[in-house]
C-alpha cells in the first residue's frame, strides 16, 4: 500500500543492535572496574606483587674449648624460583634450561624429596619402622592422596570420623606403592610424561611439590639449588631475562669444617620430617626449616636457631624483586663453646680407627678372633671438673652430608637409615664360616637366627633385626648409649669395696693356682693364671681372677650380695634402685645409664627372662620333665577381650613375683583360679576339655621348670663372684667408666659430667658459664685410693703389667686397668668375641685426665690401650717419636703373649642361669 512508513527489521539492523549491546556491556564493565571498584582492584594487584620473603637467621656456632670452630655458618649462593602467574606459563621450559645449566656446571639440584626412582621407593630419614610409617602417612596425606580413599570408606558418612575409620584409611593409604604415588603426582602437577624422561619428570616434581608444600605457610621462593659456586651464580644472573621466576640469593649454610670429627656429640641438622606439629607450634616453617637432629645441635636447638628476619618486597610479573619496601633483620643464634679439645678428639677417633683396622687385618690372636672389630668408643675427662675433653664413637659420619640438600646419596641413605641386614648378614655368615656352629643349617637358617625378621611389623617379609648387635651403626653413640660388661676394668672397684669394708688389706695375699671354687662342686679353671702368691697390687697388675673372686666371696660372706653395689654406686657405677638418685652422669646429650650387680636388679632381670621361658613352656604344652597338657598362650593377642587381657596380665605378674621370692609366695590356689578363668574366658579354648589334672600339671610346670630354678639361681654365690671380676649383669657405658676412673684419680670426688663450657651471644660475649658441680664425695679413705692407684700404675709399667707394652717408652708415669668382657657364652657362634676395654688416668702423681677406651669384638684390653696413649699424647702435646699405629701393632703382638701369661682368661664354668650375660668368664 502506498504511503506505508513501516520499516523492515533486517539482518543489518540485528547486527547493529548486537554490537551496541556488546559495547554497552564492555563500557559498563570498564566503568565498574576503573571507576566504581578501582581502589579495590588496585589493592588486589598490589597485594599479588607485594610479598614477604623470610630471611634465615645465622645459626649459632659450636666451638671447642680453645675457640676452634666445630660447626659454623658460611654464606652461600642459592638459586631460587619465584612463582607468579607469568612465570607459571613458562615453568617447564624455564626449568628445563635451569637443569641444563646446573648440570653443565657440576651443580646439584636441591633434593629433599623422599620419593625416589630407579627403583621407585621412599627414603625417610629414620631407621625406626614405626616412625617411617608415620612419615609415609603424612607424606601422602599432605599431597591429598587420602581424599579419594576417605570418600570411598566414609561413603557420605555424616558425623565425626571414628578411630576405626581413620585406621582403615591409613591402611589403604599405605597400600599405595611408591610407583603409584609417583604417577598420581605426575598427574597432579600436570607433568607431560610423554615429553620428558622419568628422571626429568622427577626433577620437575621436586620443584612443583615444594611449591605445594610451601603454599600451606604463605609465599616464599623455592630453593632450586643451594651452595652453588660463585661462577654458576653469576652465569644465572646474566641470564635472568631468559629465565622467568629465577633469581639468585645468598643465605647461610651450616658447615662442619672438621668433617666426621666430633659427630658423636655434635649431631647434625636436618629438614623437619617428624614431630611437625611440635615445630609448627614453635613457629618453624616445616616445609623449609632445618633443625638439630642429634647431639648438641638438637639439645640446644632453641639457643642455636636464632630469630628469622624478613623483607617486604615488590615483584614484577617475572617474579623478580624490583623494590624492597621494608626489612626485619634476622638475629643470629647463640653460640655454644664446649669443653672438648679438638686435638684430643681427633687423636681419639684416628687411634680408634687405626686400632680397629689393625685388629681386623690381624684377627687371630690366641683365644680371640677380632675380625668384627668395627665399633668402638673413647672418652676423656678432666678429673678435677668433670669436663668432657673428648667423646668419640666409631663408626662416625660427616654432618656436612645433612646440612645441604642433595649431598646424601642413595648409597649413604641405605647405609645410615635403611641397611639391608639380609644382604649384610649373608656375607657376614659366609665370611666367618658360621654355619659350622649350626649343624645341618643353611646360610638362610643361620640368617634367621642372627638377623630374624621383625615380628613386630605386620606382614613383614624384609625388615630384619640385629639381635646380637653385629651391624656397625654410625648414628648410634657407642660412648654414651652402649651398656656393656666392664670386665677386669671393674677390679679396682672390687678392691676399693674390699678395702673399705675391711675384708682385706693391701697386703692380703692368696695363692693363685688358676682356679676358683664357685661352690656346689663347681671349680672354675682359667686358661691363664697360676701366678702364685698374689696381693692387691700384684692382683691388679696381672689381673688375677681368683684374687678378686676371693675378695667378692669374703664380702658376700660378711655382708651379703649388695655390699659391692653399696660402694660402686658412690662411683657412679649404677644407682640405688627405688631411690631419689637420678641415674645419670649429667652429660647434656642423651645417655643410657648402666647398673651394677645388686639383688633388686637381678631379681627383676630374672623375672623377665624366666617369665619368657614359662610362657614358651606353657605354649608348647609340654615341659622338660615329660609332662603334657593343653597348650596355654599367655602372649598378648590383639584379638583378646579386655577380660582376657586382664587375666593374662595377672598371671604374668604372679609368675614374676614367684620367680623373685620363690616358694614362700607360690600360691597354687591363685594360679588355679587364674588359669581356670583364662580357659573359661578365652574363645580359643572353647570346646576343649581342660580338667583339674591338666591345670595342676601347668602349675607344676610353672613351679619346677622356671620358678624353682630361677630362685635357686638367684641365691648362688656365682652372681657375686662374677660381678667381682666385671662379668654377670653389671653393665656400664664408656662414659660411666671414664668418670669412675676420674673419681679414683682425683681422690674420691665424683663430678657431674658436662660438654658445655660457655654460652655466648651473637657478639661473642659470655652469657652463661657452666661451673664444676660435685655429685658426691665418696668418703673413701686416702690410703684405700693410694693402694688401688699403685696397683693400677703397675698395669702400665710393671714387669707383668697387662698394658705395659702399650705404654713402653711413654714419657709420663700413668695408671690404668685393662679388661676383656665376654659378650655371651655362645659368642663364637654369632661371629662375636670379647670386648676390649681400657680405663686409666695421667699423670700418676698429679692426675689431670682420665680415659676409657673400648673396641667391640676387640678381644683384650691391652689391644685397646694405644687409644688412651694417643689421647694422652694430644692432651699433653707430647712428641714421643712413636706413632699410634706402631703402638697398636706392639700392643697386639704382646697381647698374644698375654693370653698365656698375663691375661685374664675365659672361665669354663657352666652357666647355670640361662642368662647369656651371666657367666664366669673374666678376661683382662
Automatic annotation (TrEMBL):
Stretches assigned to coiled coil: none
SUPFAM superfamilies the UniProt entry points to: beta-lactamase/transpeptidase-like, Penicillin binding protein dimerisation domain
Annotated stretches, region: Disordered: 883-924
Domain of life, per lineage: Bacteria
Cell compartments where the protein resides: Cell membrane; Membrane
Domain Penicillin-binding protein dimerisation span(s) in chain numbering: 55-325
Residues in Penicillin-binding protein transpeptidase domain copies: 376-586, 723-870
Record key words, sorted: Cell membrane, Cell shape, Cell wall biogenesis/degradation, Membrane, Peptidoglycan synthesis, Transmembrane, Transmembrane helix
InterPro entries found in the cross-reference section: Beta-lactam/transpept (IPR050515), Beta-lactam/transpept-like (IPR012338), PBP_dimer (IPR005311), PBP_dimer_sf (IPR036138), PCN-bd_Tpept (IPR001460)
Primary localization class, coarse: membrane
Polar residues composition-biased segments: 894-906
Composition-biased stretches (Low complexity): 883-893, 907-924
Its membrane topology: Single-pass membrane protein
Transmembrane segments: 12-31
Pfam families: PBP_dimer (PF03717), Transpeptidase (PF00905)
Family: Belongs to the transpeptidase family.
Name this protein carries in UniProt: Penicillin-binding transpeptidase domain-containing protein
Organism: Clostridium tanneri
Amino acid at each position: 500500500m502506498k504511503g506505508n512508513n513501516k520499516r523492515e527489521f533486517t539482518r543489518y539492523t540485528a547486527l547493529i543492535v548486537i554490537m551496541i549491546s556488546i559495547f554497552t556491556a564492555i563500557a559498563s564493565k570498564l566503568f565498574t572496574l576503573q571507576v566504581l571498584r578501582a581502589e579495590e582492584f588496585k589493592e588486589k594487584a598490589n597485594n599479588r606483587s607485594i610479598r614477604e620473603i623470610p630471611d634465615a637467621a645465622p645459626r649459632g656456632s659450636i666451638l671447642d674449648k680453645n675457640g676452634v670452630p666445630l660447626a659454623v655458618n658460611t654464606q652461600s649462593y642459592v638459586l631460587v624460583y619465584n612463582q607468579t602467574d607469568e612465570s607459571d606459563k613458562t615453568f617447564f621450559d624455564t626449568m628445563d634450561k635451569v637443569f641444563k645449566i646446573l648440570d653443565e656446571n657440576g651443580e646439584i639440584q636441591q633434593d629433599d624429596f623422599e620419593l625416589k626412582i630407579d627403583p621407585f621407593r621412599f627414603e625417610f630419614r629414620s631407621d625406626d619402622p614405626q616412625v617411617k610409617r608415620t612419615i609415609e602417612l603424612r607424606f601422602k596425606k599432605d599431597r591429598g592422596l587420602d581424599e579419594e580413599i576417605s570418600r570411598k570408606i566414609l561413603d557420605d558418612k555424616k558425623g565425626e570420623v571414628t578411630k576405626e575409620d581413620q585406621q582403615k584409611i591409613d591402611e589403604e593409604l599405605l597400600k599405595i606403592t611408591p610407583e603409584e604415588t609417583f604417577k598420581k603426582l605426575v598427574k597432579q602437577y600436570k607433568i607431560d610424561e610423554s615429553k620428558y624422561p622419568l628422571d626429568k619428570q622427577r626433577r620437575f616434581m621436586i620443584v612443583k611439590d615444594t611449591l605445594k608444600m610451601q603454599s600451606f605457610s604463605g609465599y616464599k621462593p623455592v630453593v632450586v639449588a643451594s651452595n652453588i659456586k660463585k661462577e654458576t651464580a653469576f652465569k644465572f644472573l646474566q641470564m635472568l631475562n631468559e629465565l622467568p621466576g629465577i633469581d639468585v640469593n645468598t643465605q647461610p649454610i651450616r658447615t662442619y669444617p672438621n668433617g666426621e670429627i666430633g659427630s658423636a656429640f655434635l649431631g647434625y641438622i636436618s629438614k623437619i620430617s617428624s614431630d611437625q606439629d611440635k615445630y609448627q607450634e614453635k613457629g618453624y616453617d616445616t616445609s623449609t626449616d632445618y633443625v638439630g637432629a642429634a647431639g648438641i645441635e638438637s639439645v640446644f636447638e632453641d639457643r642455636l636457631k636464632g630469630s628469622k628476619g624478613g623483607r617486604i618486597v615488590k615483584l614484577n610479573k617475572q617474579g623478580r624483586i624490583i623494590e624492597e619496601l621494608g626489612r626485619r633483620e634476622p638475629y643470629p643464634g647463640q653460640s655454644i663453646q664446649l669443653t672438648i679439645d679438638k686435638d684430643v678428639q681427633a687423636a681419639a677417633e684416628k687411634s680408634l680407627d687405626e686400632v680397629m683396622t689393625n685388629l681386623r687385618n690381624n684377627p687371630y690372636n690366641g683365644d680371640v678372633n677380632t675380625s668384627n672389630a668395627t665399633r668402638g668408643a673413647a672418652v676423656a675427662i678432666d678429673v678435677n671438673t668433670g669436663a668432657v675433653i673428648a667423646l668419640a664413637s666409631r663408626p662416625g659420619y660427616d654432618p656436612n652430608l645433612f646440612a645441604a640438600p642433595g649431598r646424601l646419596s642413595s648409597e649413604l641413605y641405605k647405609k645410615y637409615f635403611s641397611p639391608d641386614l639380609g644382604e649384610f648378614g649373608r656375607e657376614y655368615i659366609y665370611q666367618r664360616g658360621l654355619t659350622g656352629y649350626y649343624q645341618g643349617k643353611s646360610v638362610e637358617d643361620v640368617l634367621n637366627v642372627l638377623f630374624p625378621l621383625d615380628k613386630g611389623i605386620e606382614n613383614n617379609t624384609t625388615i630384619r633385626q640385629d639381635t646380637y648387635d653385629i651391624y656397625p651403626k654410625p648414628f648410634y653413640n657407642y660412648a654414651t648409649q652402649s651398656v656393656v660388661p666392664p670386665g677386669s676394668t671393674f677390679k679396682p672397684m672390687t678392691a676399693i669395696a674390699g678395702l673399705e669394708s675391711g675384708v682385706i688389706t693391701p697386703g692380703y695375699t692368696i695363692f693363685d693356682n688358676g682356679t676358683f671354687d664357685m661352690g656346689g662342686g663347681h671349680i672354675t679353671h682359667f686358661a691363664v693364671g697360676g701366678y702364685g702368691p698374689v696381693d692387691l697390687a700384684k692382683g691388679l697388675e696381672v689381673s688375677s681372677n681368683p684374687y678378686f673372686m676371693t675378695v667378692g666371696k669374703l664380702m658376700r660372706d660378711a655382708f651379703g650380695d649388695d655390699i659391692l653395689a653399696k660402694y660402686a654406686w658412690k662411683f657412679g657405677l649404677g644407682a640405688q634402685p627405688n631411690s631419689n638418685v637420678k641415674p645419670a652422669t649429667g652429660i647434656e646429650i642423651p645417655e643410657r645409664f648402666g647398673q651394677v650387680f645388686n639383688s633388686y636388679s637381678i631379681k627383676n632381670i630374672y623375672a623377665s627372662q624366666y617369665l619368657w621361658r614359662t610362657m614358651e613352656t606353657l605354649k608348647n604344652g609340654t615341659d622338660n620333665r615329660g609332662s603334657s597338657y593343653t597348650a596355654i598362650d599367655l602372649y598378648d593377642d590383639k584379638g583378646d577381650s579386655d577380660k582376657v587381657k586382664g587375666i593374662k596380665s595377672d598371671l604374668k605378674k604372679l609368675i614374676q613375683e614367684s620367680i623373685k621370692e620363690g616358694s614362700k609366695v607360690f600360691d597354687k590356689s591363685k594360679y588355679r583360679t587364674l588359669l581356670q578363668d583364662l580357659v573359661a574366658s578365652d574363645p580359643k579354648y572353647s570346646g576343649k576339655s581342660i580338667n583339674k589334672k591338666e591345670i595342676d600339671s601347668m602349675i607344676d610346670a610353672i613351679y619346677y621348670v622356671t620358678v624353682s630354678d630361677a630362685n635357686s639361681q638367684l641365691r648362688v654365690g656365682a652372681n657375686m663372684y662374677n660381678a667381682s671380676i666385671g662379668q654377670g649383669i653389671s653393665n656400664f657405658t664408656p662414659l660411666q667408666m671414664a668418670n669412675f676412673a676420674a673419681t679414683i684419680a682425683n681422690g674420691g670426688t665424683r663430678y657431674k659430667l658436662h660438654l658445655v663450657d660457655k654460652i655466648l651471644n651473637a657478639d661473642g660475649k659470655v652469657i652463661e658459664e657452666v661451673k664444676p658441680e660435685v655429685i658426691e664425695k665418696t668418703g673413701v679413705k686416702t690410703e684405700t685410693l693410694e693402694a688401688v692407684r699403685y696397683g693400677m700404675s703397675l698395669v702400665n709399667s710393671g714387669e707383668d703389667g697387662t698394658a705395659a707394652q702399650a705404654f713402653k717408652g711413654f714419657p709420663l708415669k700413668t695408671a690404668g686397668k685393662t679388661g676383656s668382657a665376654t659378650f655371651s657364652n655362645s659368642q663364637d657362634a654369632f661371629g662375636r668375641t670379647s670386648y676390649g676395654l681400657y680405663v686409666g688416668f695421667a699423670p700418676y702423681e698429679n692426675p689431670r685426665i682420665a680415659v676409657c677406651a673400648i673396641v667391640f669384638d676387640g678381644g683384650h684390653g691391652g689391644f685397646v690401650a694405644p687409644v688412651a696413649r694417643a689421647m694422652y699424647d694430644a692432651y699433653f702435646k707430647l712428641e714421643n717419636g712413636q706413632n699410634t699405629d706402631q703402638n697398636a701393632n706392639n700392643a697386639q703382638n704382646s697381647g698374644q703373649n698375654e693370653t698365656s701369661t698375663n691375661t685374664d682368661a675365659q672361665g669354663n664354668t657352666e652357666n647355670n642361669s640361662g642368662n647369656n650375660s651371666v657367666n664366669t668368664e673374666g678376661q683382662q
